[in-house]
Amino acid sequence: MLQQMSPTYWKFFKYCNIKHVTGIPHNPTGQTVVERSNRTLKEVLHKQVGGTKTPKHRLHNALLTLNFLNANEKGQTAEERHWTMEKTAELNQPVYFKDVLTSVWKPGHVLSWGRGFAFVSTGEEKLWIPSKLIKIL
After folding, report:
1. Of 4, 26, 131, 134, which sits most exposed with the smallest number of CB within 10 A?
2. pTM of this prediction?
3. How far is CA 47 from the centre of its chain?
4. Which CATH architecture has domain 2-83?
């Protein structure tokens, strides 16, 4: 992946003092999620017919298919699941989450659930926490 970046990017990173890292800190399964998403997109692109279309057009069609045309068992598309409000019963519920830096379990309240993570408020700060580090009370 790093070899594919152009020298222009590296110059920009150096100029802005940006350290380029890959993966998601303290969440090794995060990279798996990214790789699976890439694989799914490639599979949809491979299934498309009509090879005369531009790559940009093919990508737009694939993303449209993935985000708006695939429904789950409740009949909701990914777009509907992303934008619809979650049930209030699931929000603001008390939880304990593990602080990865100190390995201490801390109390908090869920502000939002996502796929594999939750947005948790401790009262002092708001954090994105992997769901495997959350215990619901």
Report:
1. 4
2. 0.45
3. 24
4. 2-Layer Sandwich (3.30)
